## 1
Amino acid sequence: MGQLAFALLAVLAVGSALGLIVKRNPIHGALFLVVNLASIAVLYLMLGAEFLALAQIIVYAGAIMVLFVFAIMVLIPGKEETGPDPLRRVRVLALPLGAVLMVMLVAVAARWGAGPSGPGGARGLEALGRVLFTEYLLPFELTSVLLLAAMVGVILLARGKA
Amino acid sequence: MVPESYYTALSAILFATGVVGVVIRRNPLVIFMSIELMLNAANLALVAFAHRLGNLEGQVLVFFVMAVAAAEVAVGLAIIVAIFRLRTRLSVDDLSLMRW
């Protein structure tokens, strides 16, 4: 049963990733990416990371993708990548080289993850919260500073020549 | 139970797909979305290893990667919109001012 779920989610994730890079319309690509993020969130659930699955849906699919859709709407389609590709002769190399990269990465990644599982440690939301607020408290607080810096930067960039 | 090598293999496939997407597309927004795809592939590998080792540090790192990705997307999209708002074509090939 778990194998079937994984197979379905893997097909969904890879299919939506291919849809993202293939579709001409960026809105279609954004919707494909939402499907991809949702399937990865379900994979997180299968891996016992419930908080991350919810955070993925709320933050990635819910906030980041909404930002993307806003940006796509501001830069109205019609100004897309039309016309001949000036770098076409170089860009067609991307597909075979990308396939080579994929084969290499899968060969390494499948070997890394193989082997016996380690000891079952603490899982779940409470354990994650405990670790986050004791061992990793400093990065946690610094993240808030990072978000503040990003907010200030975005406001400054969006202000224009006021 | 699915072995963790399947998850890392899926992560590798998604990452390579993101790389190809960054290279072959000219629309800066689609390039940015492919970068997010790569980030998610790395997150998946991290969570898979956290599951396998029983160690929560992989999940903590994914937490921070998500926060940083959110900040990065906000700033990156602001930059892209600021650059391309007054242009007629939405293609990264037009940004050749600093090329030699």
## 2
Amino acid sequence: MNSVRIFFRTCWFQYRAMFNWATPIGYLSYKFLQPVGQILFFTELGIFATGRSNALYFALGNALQLTAINGIFGVVMSVGNERQFGTLPILLGSPANRLVTFLGRAFVHVLDGIAGVAVGLVLAVVMFQIDLSHANLGLLAMCVGIISLSTAGLGLMFGSLSLIMRDVFVIANAVYYLLLVFCGINIPVSRLPEWAQVISTALPLTRGVEAAREVVTGASLAKVSGLIAGELAIGLAYALIGYAMFRWLEHQARRGGLQEAY
Amino acid sequence: MTAYVRAAARAFEMSMKLRAVNPFTNFGWLVFPLIFVILGLALLGGGGRTAYAILGGGLLGYWGMAYVEGANEIQNERWSGTLEQIMGCPTPLAVIVVGKLCSSLLFGALSFLPAIAVGYFAFHQSLQNIDPGPFAVSFLVLTFAFFCMAVTLAPLYAMWRWAFSVTNGFEIGVYVLGGFMFPISHLPSWLQLVASGFAPTWAVRSLYAATGQPFGHDYALWWAVSIALSCAYLVIGWFLYRMVDVRARATGQLALA
């Protein structure tokens, strides 16, 4: 019961921290301007490179990848900012269950990430007349939710590095943009070199985006269940690795006195 | 005047030292362009559009350094707790910002090195058919446009925290309006109209024309429009610096925005 209370309190404080810092204009610019910019840029680049008939591929991929704004930037920084704002020693000194505290950091971002993808999909439909008439929208929503969860798992893993690293925002940036290359967002995975395909299979988004692409063309749950299960498993694996890293790095931070080393 | 030049030079020197050891700066000029060059070359392939991938990757890094690193300098001083000292010293804020901006632009210009290197070594692609004279002038005009935009954005970031969020949120949108990786003639006409009010767009067009892209050779016109728009930004920037100065002294809230 206590863990449930800590989880929801962590979520609530996470929410308040996010929205106390972000002014409404600032928040909306990340929720609307960034999706507009990203979808417009990559879809127009894709059209320039491959022709207008492929607009759906680029618009849909980038709309789905928007979840990484929260899953990567949001989650990584929610852990990383503890160090920057000087609250990390207090957090590490508290007796609260680490797993609950850790997951609570990500939950609000998962929800906000889903909202971000919804905005992205609406923009993709409006800007590029993406046809979703064959899509099972419930199943598409499920794909979006799972992608948000799995991306947050990766974010948690990299976020835990902030316990011993000062510049974790650099890593968040690199991961966010590398996902655009490796996860079948702008380049089909089959067109990547073999070594890159190996990396892409180990990343979140790859299977989830592939499943969503199939759902948009009318695929059923039975057809995409393997991809969805794989996406969930990848996200869970990253979250578990992240948690293990968090505990280990917490230990290292205590030993090295790095909690306040900023 | 000599004192101002000396102050700007010191700001430049200090800023260069700080940037050299800043991982985010090194990510901005070294890693970020690489990702986009790889993406660009994978999509655009070889042939006539190679320039859009290689130069485009460099342009993205250059612009990123100008607006994140350069224009955000006032905000960085605030977060470091040193803005009051800078505002309180006899040297105008703009002089200090100019010195810092020059260093961010110098690092930004480095973005073209990894872009060209990855194109050549990983994809065996390089920039061809370069017309050196127009290319060099176009690059200088582009640098001036980035400089003026950053000078103008800096006081905006100082006055309103959301201003950076808005520009950062629309960072990738700027790539579209600037025609960094594909020609803006590709865009809907209303968007082309918006892009035409953006000084770097004209300089980027002349830069690509100098690499053999089929835009014609109206270099003088493109440079003139870009410089005129850049000067207009500077005029707006002058008023904004005055506003920052007055607001900071009148409200005493310099450290709080």
